[in-house]
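Mods, move this if it's the wrong board.
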Amino acid sequence: MININTNGKGVPFIEQRVLTDTEMLKILNSDKFTGAEKEQIRRLQKNLSKMVIEQGFSKSRCIPMIDSNNKTFIWFD
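Not the wrong board. Structure tokens:
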């Protein structure tokens, strides 16, 4: 689902927000989400752990995000 908000010039943009640990756990433990959505969250958590453990990033600086297209990604503070 694409959000048709605009940046004031009529150009559509995609909204983004932080995905908290609590929200990720709710998704994983809920029957409302599909297996693919749960797998997406598992991959996000795995990538976060990998970045912190293997690559030495600070956990507090790696922020899990989700956009209005339901795409997850990691933002660096």
